[in-house]
Amino acid sequence: MQQDTKFVEERYNLEMAKAKEAEAKNKRTITIWACLFIMTALLYALNIIRLRLQISRAKNRELEVEKQRYEQLYADAIAERDALTKMVEDSSVQEEAKAVIKARLDVLNKVIISQITGTSSANKKAYEELELLLADKESFIESTRLTIEGNNPEFISALKQRGLSDEEINICCLYAIGLRGKDIKAYTSQPRHYNQSADIRRKLGLTESDTNLSIFLRDMLEK
Questions:
Q1: Is 10 part of any domain?
Q2: Which residues of 54-69 are buried (b: 16+ CB within 10 A; e: fewer)?
Q3: Is residue 165 situated within a structural domain?
Q4: Is 9 within the bounds of a domain?
Q5: Is this model's pTM higher than 0.85 or not?
Q6: What is the pLDDT of residues 131-160, one digit of tens each?
């Protein structure tokens, strides 16, 4: 009887030990899975934060580039406005040429003023309009030539007779209304403007020591 009781106790103790061991194993498994879940969640959160930081930095860089582009655009517009204003005030510039200049000047002033006084969204639209206006210099060059050709067809004919190309005649028209070399370079976007001016002088029979090209063409236009 005593041996049976001892056997039962030993068996009970063994079962309890196994149960405790299984419980401890389950707890360890749960703890491991919980740690893995927490680590995965932390890694995911860190990755999200890193991604948001990258997006934020990229957006800030993009905004800075856009800001610099707008500032340069505005500076270009002011420079062109000032140059055109001087030409309008120049008494030697013919009235028909002034009309062309004033037309572009009015549009420039309108866009510049809307940029200063508008809201943020209006400013962006104004900058976009300004960018299109500054990029569309061909229409100004074309209207200048057509105006001169309509009022002084002999001027254009004389240039053609001397073998000037259409592009060179356009440059001559800009010189004739009072634009300076650097302004014309900005309008034509030609890196070889100096060479073009030299070619024009040669075709017109001017040497380096002769009169300024702009003065020569303006005198030629007034004849």
A1: no
A2: eeeeeeeeeeeeeeee
A3: yes
A4: no
A5: no
A6: 777 677 777 788 888 888 887 889 899 999
For residue 156, what are its two tokens?
A: 């254009």
Check pLDDT > 80 for residue 178. no
Total domains in the fold of the chain: 1
The whole-angstrom separation of Cα 173 and Cα 167 is 10
Residue 44 lies in a domain: no
In angstroms, what is the C-alpha Rg of the chain?
40
Q: How far apart are CA 163 and CA 176, in angstroms?
A: 18
Let me know: does 164 contact 200? Beta carbons within 8 Å.
yes
The token pair that represents 83 in the structure block: 């140059």
For the chain, give percent helix, strand, coil, nearest 5.
85, 0, 15
Cα–Cα distance measured from residue 84 to residue 179, given in angstroms and rounded to the nearest whole number:
8
Buried b (16+ CB within 10 A) or exposed e, 200-212: bbeebeeeeeeee
Host domain of residue 113: 65-222
CA 71 to chain centre: 10
Backbone angles phi, psi at 101, to 5 degrees: -65, -45
